[in-house]
Amino acid sequence: MSRWSAIVGYSLVGAATQLVWLNFAGVTTVAATHYAVSETAIGWLAQVFPLLYVVLSIPCGLALDRWFRPALLAGAVLTAIGALVRLGGDHFAWLLAGQLIASVAQPLVLNAVTGITGRYLDEKDRPTGIAIGTASIFAGMVLAFLLSAVLPAAADLHTMLVVTAAFCVAAVLFLAVALRTPGPHAPAVPAVPQAIFTALRTAWSDPLIRRLCVLAVFPFGVFVALSTFAQPLLEPAGVTSTTASLILLLNVIAGVLGSALLPIYAARHHAESPYLVTSLTTTAIACLFLAFLPSTPVALITITLIGLLLLPALPIVLELVERRSTDAEGTAAGLIWLSGNLGGLLAATAVGLLVNHPRPAFLLLALLPLIALPGAHTLRHHLQTPAPTTR
């Protein structure tokens, strides 16, 4: 029997992690002026998340496989603590301290999306559970951009942080109640440490997992860089801060809708490879439009389209991982998230260096999905190859 309350609790905490991550993405310029730092420094409030994810993803995945409920709850609590620390004072140092705490928590939460569906949902419900859990992560981004659109002024920054902290605390409480007992499909005997490390080696030896790790680098890179620096990149084209926040909001709303529907369709029709090829191609074309024809209408159409088609790539990849990895979901998912966040870190860093040169920045973002196209095209072959049987 499926226990959907656990998925709801997880979804709230997953949304909270993204809300903390992207609080300042829509108000980069305003926040930089208010805290007397550069726009690049404000960008680093978001970039510390993928930076620490690269370091902590595998250890957190191992922890989830060994102590799933305590590890997930620890991630939820640390997210709330990070949000509360940011209220310590009206200074950039408090923001950075809170972001660092919450960024440690993020891999414990996001790596758990396949594990919680495997433990609390029947097999037939798991693709839907992964789609909902991933869509909720993007919904947290919607909340971040909505808050920055509703509270765009420097005087509103404290209110934005208070609302975020309250949401994080409420999410922790709901999840704690939902996880008070193990899931109906949880392993009867927890894995021992030796088995966990064996699972890590086995996961990496799977050609499909390796292929998915490589593919994750590029769409993650485009999305993280776009989310972090879209506002200053579009400003020279006459796109205001408020308008940029609304465009990013529509981008993620489209991604939430796409993530809730398109991965289920792709799984039922075995169309994962064609979907990824279409998504990457469309993203590259959209970034070319932003490079050569930047304007408010072009940004609205292209960035929304990127959200609709690119964000569902994540639940598609994670559903393939859940199907492939039966006893080490956290570890396998950690490999995917590690690769994606490494791509996000590298792409955002490169775009941050080009933040005053929008055309080269958008051309770089157009190149990244094109690099991934051959891998997405040949993914069908790896889907037909049996997984390694050694665990």
What share of the residues lie within helices?
over 70%
**What is the chain-wise order of helices and strands?**
HHHHHHHHHHHHHHHHH
> What is the global morphology?
globular
Number of strands: 0
Computed structural class: mainly alpha
What count of helical segments does DSSP give?
Answer: 17
Main sheet properties: none
Average residue pLDDT: 85
C-alpha-based Rg, rounded? 20 Å
Strand content: under 5%
Intertermini distance: 27 Å
Question: Please, could you describe this protein's structure?
Answer:
80% of the residues lie in helices and 0% in strands. It has 391 residues and is mainly α. The chain is globular. The two termini are 27 Å apart.
List the helices and strands and how they pair.
Layout (H helix, E strand, L loop, with lengths): L3 H18 L6 H7 L4 H28 L1 H18 L6 H19 L2 H8 L5 H25 L6 H22 L14 H13 L1 H28 L6 H28 L3 H21 L3 H15 L2 H12 L4 H25 L4 H20 L1 H5 L8
Quick recap:
The protein is an all-alpha fold and 391 residues long.
Keywords:
single chain, globular
